[in-house]
Amino acid sequence: MKTKLLLLTLALTFTSTLANAQTFEKKSLTLDGAKRVIAAAVAYAKKNNAPGGVIAVVDDGGNLMALERLDGTFAAGANISIGKARTAALFKRPTKTFEDIIKNGRTAMVALPDSFFTPLQGGIPIVVDNQIVGGVGVSGAATAQQDEELAIAGANAFTDLKMSDAQSPVLFFNSSQVSTSFANGGVLLDGMNRNYMVHTSKREKPGQAEIHALDTDIIYVIQGSATFVTGGTAVDAKTTAPNELRGTRIDGGETRQLVKGDVIVVPNNTPHWFKEVAGTLLYYTIKVRCADCASTAMMSANR
Predict the structure, then answer these.
(1) Which end of the chain offers a freer environment for a tag, N or C, measured as fewer CB atoms within 10 Å?
(2) Maximum Cα–Cα distance across the chain
(3) Which residues neighbour 24 within 8 Å (Cβ) at sequence distance 6 or greater?
(4) Same domain? 217 vs 120
């Protein structure tokens, strides 16, 4: 009899253990949490003088939880922001990723249904304890870049909570993922919840003079060669996005020839320009954001 009871106990214990192994604790976004996301985005908008914006928050299934439309925002912004938030949540990545992929030639992605896919910059997944609990989308700010900045501010609303104390996970991209990213010339690792990004950059012709007020670029060339100019004065420099300037060329500065294996570090607020490109140039760009730099740093771009 005792043997039978022991076997029954072991069987029940094994069944319970198996059941626990097949489930996990899932985080969910509450209505208060959604309102917290919107409040953080609105605060950022006011601080940075955004002319408007609609902020939408969805759960991890893409269902709308909360929405706020700032005064002066065009009416269509509501549906667009919901689409961006839904896309970020369902596809588990920023919507700019898809905009870049389509821009670089993979137009077949536009065949996805509009109800689930809005490939426009400004949608960011909301992450808590390394779990995606929803998405936030913004439309109607000054630029697409500012749409995304507002969305990132909203998604970061929980960084002061428990998740900020957790150790960051190790991130790994296999060779196939890296090759695909280089083929598209896109973002390998976005800047969500971190102060750095990794771009797999592809260039086949000269570009504009660039000035990043907040980002330091660390460039590592893996294929091709280019004539690269740093410093000097950016000619006809115009603001194209918050903290970003573009010009037609650079007068003066220092010219270098970049080849495979070279690394160059371009500090934030430094004019730089790919003046000439030989063949296809592939290079990693590690963008590190200066948290303490003021947006007014752009005023010294023509030093």
Answers:
(1) N
(2) 94
(3) none
(4) no
Q: Write the pLDDT tens digit of every residue in 90-138.
A: 999 999 988 888 888 887 777 777 667 898 999 999 998 888 999 999 9
Confidence (pLDDT) at 2: 56
N residues, the chain: 303
Within 10 angstroms of residue 176's Cβ, the number of other Cβ atoms is 8
Instruction: Give me the CATH number covering residue 217.
Output: 2.60.120.10
Alpha-carbon distance of 289 to 301, in angstroms, equals: 17
- Mean pLDDT per 10-residue run, the chain (303 residues)? 55 54 74 93 89 93 94 89 94 90 79 80 90 93 91 85 57 92 88 85 94 94 96 93 90 96 96 95 93 44 34
Are 125 and 231 contained in the same domain?
Answer: no
DSSP H or E stretch at residue 46: helix 31-47
